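Readers of this paper often ask what the protein records in our data store actually look like. Such a record has a labelled line for the sequence and another for the backbone structure tokens. Nothing more is needed to write down the fold, since each code stands for a local backbone conformation. The record that follows is passed on verbatim for readers who wish to inspect the format.
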Amino acid sequence: MNESNVAGFFAYARERYQILLNRRAGKPKPWTRDPILQSYRFCNVFREDDTVTEWFRESGARTTTFSCMLMRLTNRIDTAQILLNEDLFAHWDEKLARKSLADKKPLTNAAYIVHTPYGFNKLNGLIEMLRPVWADQKAGRLDFKGYSLEGAHEQLMRYDCVGSFIAYEVVTDLNHTPVLGKAIDKMTWAAAGPGAARGLSRIIGGVPLDHFRYGRPAHQTHMLKLMEALLLHSKRPKVWPAQWPTWDMRTVEHTLCEFDKYQRVREGGRAKQLFNGKG
């Protein structure tokens, strides 16, 4: 990997995390002097610090594979609050869900692209997708204790319309619950998505942005080795302060995607969401 590009990757990550610390400390805007980070919205370095994830964790609903699937298929706090009020995370009921969410618009967060079964609107498609998941949850087939993150990810992709992205989001949630909290591969495995693949291409340097095809197993294996190298870099105090939280492989993958967005803006492009961080 290009050393200068690796340094740029961690410089971005440090500045993004410092923004979070400045905000939490109650400091006035601007929380950064970086004009790109002032103008565009970027996810936190650690997924557990993101707003939707914080809500889900603090709601007490993040307990089962089904509840995590339901949360990530909607990924909106206002929708999730309705589900929580009706106790649908723990006791799914299709009729009650259809009634409770009938007038909810938008139903899902546009940040996650979810392809519902052909011919269904968002609500009915969501219910259709969740039917076999709920059946397996009740039958005890979704207890992944003893599984690796990778193994649980593979199992979740058996469901129709559940691809690598959503399966990975669910597995990441479960990694912070008793279901997968003791998974042995949190420091050795991640599922690189398209953003992370582009981010790695940028760090290598001298290759096109589509150098890695994230859908190819051989490319996933190669990207995994590169992400492991970045994780090793993160353990150096000069790269990432020792008093800050430590990285895992999810953090590497997650930050690569955001770094790709950051570099795209630096090169004259745009990010999807604006952010008024200037004060």
Notes: The chain has a mean pLDDT of 93. Residues 3-24+39-44+187-266 form one domain. The chain has two domains: 3-24+39-44+187-266, 63-174. DSSP finds twelve helices and no strands in the chain.
